[in-house]
Structure to design on (600 residues):
């Protein structure tokens, strides 16, 4: 077990609790060997310059060569990024990632001719090439490439954008280093009178404690550090938005938001309908906050009171291995192949389990073609939501696993819009499983409270985040300055709208807009909200044993990126072009709040 009185170093974590990266590279020497091969090989791509339209066989030859190169690059980058996630302060890992970023910039410069040259092929000639059997394996990806024609620039312009890529992305590295390495949140005396480190990872653990004063102290101490760095963080976020707007303008998109949505063929109406539907259904959320205030016996509810489970008697202590068992049992409706593959991976060191010094906060799943889909966790046995986090990341990993075992490399990579469906689907099956396992009203109340908080966090909260991203990009695009005061004031307006009069909003909460990592990768978070809506619809079909529901869902996972997201979901049984899935999820939220009121 991890000693909770201090954060262990990497060396103090047992090997069995770490991911096994030897599936990627058995040693760093082998990594360096492949890195050198990439350096020596990529210049050969220029031998196809000016020849891509001469014959289908020529274009196919270039694409196959590029694929061989990309497979190596992907694996080298995967290894370097996972090592850096293990310890963000390790100079060797930082140097390796810097090496890689520089090489990728150089490769991007050398291959800048490809996109413009493919787009320059006349329409009738392109149609002829696409019909040739030599390009049969590349029709899907070439069709997607061709769709980008209005936004591909000349070779010289593409070269300049490639050269500037790493510089334009510098804000993200600065944010990560500042928040994961440099910022120190100190120690906090817990409910047992013991000193524990307050960190990005442990903050959530303190917020689920029953002691109101402990939660309050954790909140204020945590945000004191952000207040000390608020101008630096505001500058990083401002430059993140500027980079988004620059790229969109450079590629002739009407806005940064439309640039982000175009690649997945998502109409802006999907984004706007989401915000409109949630805005029109805030009253059940306010009703829940008022229930929370009454049950917790508080004169007023603060943000730091919105995470503690309402059922005091059901505080949990679930080991990681027990969490695996719960997740696998909940996914049994998906069949033996799914469950066995996931179980072998989770027990076979796909997952890096616990917090350690310098380790990236939060959780993620990360895959590369032909290698295990690795999972990073910062698992806490006393935070029951971490069981849900494991189910969530396992959903991503199995999506990757099944897509890669079904699709060609060039068609396997699914967009994030679909990824969030697979992850939240698993959370829904976990909830159904846990509810079916208990007759205890208190346990049932606990699980329903968990589902309510999941929908609140994934649909309501992420929609608020999505609206914030829309607002700040619109401000930048209008020519106004994005200062610290602008960020805080715009975020305060949204806090007041989404919390109403039911929550007392501490001034420090305005700083939350500076600490959300996804804001530095804009127009991502709305996919959590659409994802949970689609996932609930699909999960209800599976749980109800609807004819063909399991096969349709597994087909969705296996399709990878072979179709655009909306078409993929329609084939699985959900139409996200209408507000119906979002409104159905909001209705479920309202029903669950009513049920929880009765149980409590």
């Amino acid at each position: 077990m991890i000693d909770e009185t201090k954060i262990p170093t990497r060396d103090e974590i047992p090997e069995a609790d770490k991911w096994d990266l030897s599936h990627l590279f058995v040693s760093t020497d082998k990594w360096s060997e492949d890195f050198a091969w990439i350096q020596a090989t990529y210049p050969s791509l220029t031998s196809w310059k000016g020849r891509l339209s001469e014959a289908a066989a020529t274009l196919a030859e270039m694409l196959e060569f590029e694929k061989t190169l990309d497979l190596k690059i992907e694996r080298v980058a995967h290894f370097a990024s996972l090592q850096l996630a293990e310890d963000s302060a390790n100079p060797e890992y930082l140097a390796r990632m810097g090496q890689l970023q520089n090489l990728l910039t150089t490769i991007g410069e050398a291959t800048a001719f490809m996109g413009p040259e493919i787009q320059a092929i006349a329409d009738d000639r392109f149609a002829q090439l696409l019909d040739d059997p030599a390009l049969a394996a590349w029709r899907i990806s070439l069709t997607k490439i061709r769709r980008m024609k209005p936004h591909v620039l000349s070779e010289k312009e593409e070269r300049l954008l490639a050269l500037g890529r790493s510089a334009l992305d510098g804000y993200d590295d600065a944010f990560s280093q500042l928040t994961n390495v440099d910022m120190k949140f100190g120690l906090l005396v817990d409910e047992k009178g013991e000193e524990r480190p307050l960190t990005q990872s442990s903050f959530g653990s303190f917020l689920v404690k029953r002691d109101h004063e402990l939660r309050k102290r954790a909140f204020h101490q945590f945000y004191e550090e952000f207040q000390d760095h608020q101008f630096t963080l505001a500058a990083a976020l401002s430059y993140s938005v500027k980079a988004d707007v620059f790229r969109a303008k450079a590629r002739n998109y009407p806005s940064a938001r439309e640039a982000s949505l175009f690649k997945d063929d998502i109409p802006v109406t999907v984004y706007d309908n989401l915000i409109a539907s949630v805005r029109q259904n805030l009253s059940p959320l306010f009703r829940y906050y008022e229930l929370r205030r009454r049950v917790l016996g508080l004169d007023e509810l603060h943000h730091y009171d919105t995470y503690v489970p309402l059922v005091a008697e059901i505080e949990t202590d679930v080991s990681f291995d027990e969490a695996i068992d719960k997740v696998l049992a909940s996914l049994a409706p998906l069949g033996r192949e799914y469950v066995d593959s996931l179980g072998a991976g989770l027990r076979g060191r796909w997952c890096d389990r616990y917090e350690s010094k310098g380790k990236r906060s939060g959780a993620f799943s990360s895959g590369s073609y032909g290698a295990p889909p690795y999972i990073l966790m910062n698992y806490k046995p006393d935070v029951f939501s971490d069981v849900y986090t494991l189910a969530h990341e396992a959903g991503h990993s199995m999506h990757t696993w099944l897509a890669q075992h079904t699709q060609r490399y060039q068609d396997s990579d699914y967009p994030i819009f679909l990824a969030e469906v697979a992850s939240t689907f698993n959370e829904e099956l976990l909830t159904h499983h846990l509810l079916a396992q208990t007759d205890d009203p208190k346990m049932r109340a606990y699980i329903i409270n968990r589902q309510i908080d999941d929908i609140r966090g994934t649909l309501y909260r992420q929609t608020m985040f999505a609206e914030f991203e829309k607002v700040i990009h619109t401000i930048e695009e209008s020519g106004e300055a994005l200062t610290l005061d602008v960020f805080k004031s715009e975020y305060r307006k949204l806090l007041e709208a989404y919390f109403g009069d039911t929550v007392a909003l501490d001034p420090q909460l305005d700083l939350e807009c500076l600490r959300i990592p996804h804001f530095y990768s804009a127009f991502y978070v709305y996919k959590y909200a659409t994802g949970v809506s689609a996932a609930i619809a699909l999960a209800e079909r599976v749980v109800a044993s609807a004819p063909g529901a399991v096969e349709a869902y597994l087909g969705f996972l296996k399709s990878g990126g072979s179709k655009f997201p909306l078409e993929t979901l329609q084939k699985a049984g959900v139409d996200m072009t209408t507000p119906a899935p979002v409104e159905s999820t909001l209705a479920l939220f309202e029903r669950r709040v009513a049920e929880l009121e009765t149980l409590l």
Observations:
- The chain is about 60% helix and 0% strand.
- The first strand starts at residue 187 and ends at 189.
- Residues 298 and 360 are 35 Å apart (CA to CA).
- The chain has two domains: 10-168, 185-314+421-600.
